[in-house]
Amino acid sequence: MLRKLLKYEIKATSRIFLPMYALLIVFALLNKFFMAVNSELLRIPRAIAATVFVFIIIGLCVVTLVVTIQRFNKSLLTDEGYLSFTLPVRIHSHIDSKMLVTLMWTILSFLVSMVSIFIMSIDKTTIWSLHRFVNELMRVLNKIGFNGYVLVLESILFVIIGILSVTLEIYAAITVGNMSSKHKLLAGVGAYLGFGVIQQIIMSIIMSTCEKSISQYFDSMIRAGELAQVQLAQTVLFGLIAYMVIMGVVFYFFTEWMLRKKLNLE
């Protein structure tokens, strides 16, 4: 059933994202044309095209956030929620489908933005610089060895888990805000800010409790060689990933419990 929910979510959200991706690529090509011609007669159209291009990229970020909130709220916390919860589907599946589709569009939006920027800037110098960067990166990774590839993997996991954790925090805040009979959006924003304060308190307690041990560890690793510094980066990333996993799991099951026990569709 999760597959069907994913298919439905992708179909519903692709109507928003795909036209924006197409528009972004079109304006990237248009800007590339204006940059290649470089005529004073096209100065104003060139400025307009560049401005629109920037606004589309900013719009992608905003739209991703808005769609994340809108799809979760509309499908589960409004009148449409009556239909959603009559389906023979576990609440976990509803959360999973929306969370995974949000992750997909967030990553795709970033990749499409990078491709569009590359289209605008591509020339012999850009290709040479990119080739040099890739070669230098591979040289460093080969020099460091296994730990270097682990660091790259951890970095990718850090981004993915970070997106999922933030998404689940937004879902939890929306669900809490739905408990309010009035001003649901304002209550949701307040809940999100409250979650942030709680996390800051938790981090402060952890840091103050382990401050001396952490400081000594960092000092010893920084004075060590290159490999030890890579291991330090791995340790930091692992700690951040573990923290985000814990918070994500907490928000996930909190949201599921709220939807199961405290749902208010009035």
UniProtKB/TrEMBL annotation:
Highest taxon, organism lineage: Bacteria
TM helices/strands, residue ranges: 12-35, 47-69, 100-122, 148-173, 185-207, 227-254
Keywords, alphabetical: Membrane, Transmembrane, Transmembrane helix
Protein name from the UniProt record: ABC-2 family transporter protein
Organism name: Caproiciproducens galactitolivorans
